Amino acid sequence: MEFYGLLGEKLDHSISPEIHEKIFSLLKIRAAYKKFEVKKEDLQKFVDGLKVLGIKGTNVTIPYKQTIIPYLDGLSEEAKKINAINTILLKDGKLYGYNTDYFGFGTILQCNHVEVENKVCMVLGYGGAAKAVVQYLLDHGVKKLYIVSRRTFKDVYNDLRVQFMTYDEIATVKGDVLINTTSVGMYPNVDASPVAEEIIINFATLIDIIYNPRITKFLEIGRQLDKKICGGLEMLVGQAIKAEEIWQEREISYEILTKVMDDFDKKF
């Protein structure tokens, strides 16, 4: 029996255990996946516990995606660039951090046949998930990238393709792909959209990384305007599949991805 889990502060509504248990079942792996609600002052004890108990893999969610990094023995390349992790692997007594949100966003693009190379993209929001999305876009040849947030920008990208903006400045921007990484429109506030129709109409493809509801208000507006729309379930499942590939040290087939997708598509 192998042991895995999810590290966070408040995990009541997380469906990560269900997703990973489904993957374990499809791969015929005997494993258990538990929620670990940990206070910040107990992080060192928790990390020590992972090693002592031999917890092979751990997912990490808010608010520890950056806080946990100093406790780890190494980071993957994408995690170093993003400066946030959501997956930990215990190997040979050491803990390694990865960012599978990066690959999960790629899953959205692949499943929906969306090209970002040489495209003009706009990312709404600049939280943890947004940074993974931004790094993926930069690594995959985006032509121009607008990052929109209500907060002051501290990060500086040494990349001329990146431009930070406020919501007041985006009305005149026309582009190819508009991506919502904010929580606006997430259940139960399903009648909210991060931007209005006047903004949405300026883009050909809309992506929302929210998975509940499956079609957010943001995407529904896009659908009514005959835009290509992509929801966040592919990212949710895609990042979980990538975490399992890291933990199991094997590739997982697209067939497994689609089976998990189909199973959870019915839940939202």
Quickly describe the structure:
This protein is of the alpha/beta class and 268 residues long. It contains 9 helices and 12 strands.
Measured on Cα atoms, how large is the radius of gyration? 19 Å
Helix content range of the residues, please?
25-40%
Which segments are poorly predicted (pLDDT under 50) over 5 or more consecutive residues? none
**CATH 2nd-level architecture of the largest domain:** 3-Layer(aba) Sandwich
Tally of individual helices: 9
Determine the structural class based on helices, strands and strand pairing: alpha/beta
CATH class of the largest domain, please?
Alpha Beta
- Characterize the largest beta sheet: strand count, sense, and whether it forms a barrel: 6 strands, mixed
* Strand numbers in spatial order across the main sheet: 2-1-3-5-6-4
Mean pLDDT comes to: 96
Count of beta strands: 12
* Shape category: globular
What pattern of helices and strands is seen along the backbone? EHEHEEHEEHEHEEEHEHEHH
Distance between the termini: 31 Å
CATH T-level fold name of the largest domain = Rossmann fold
Question: Mind telling me the CATH superfamily name of the largest domain?
Answer: Leucine Dehydrogenase, chain A, domain 1
What is the strand content?
15-25%
Indicate how many domains the architecture comprises: 2
GO molecular function: NADP binding; shikimate 3-dehydrogenase (NADP+) activity
EC number: 1.1.1.25
Protein name: Shikimate dehydrogenase (NADP(+))
Active site: 65
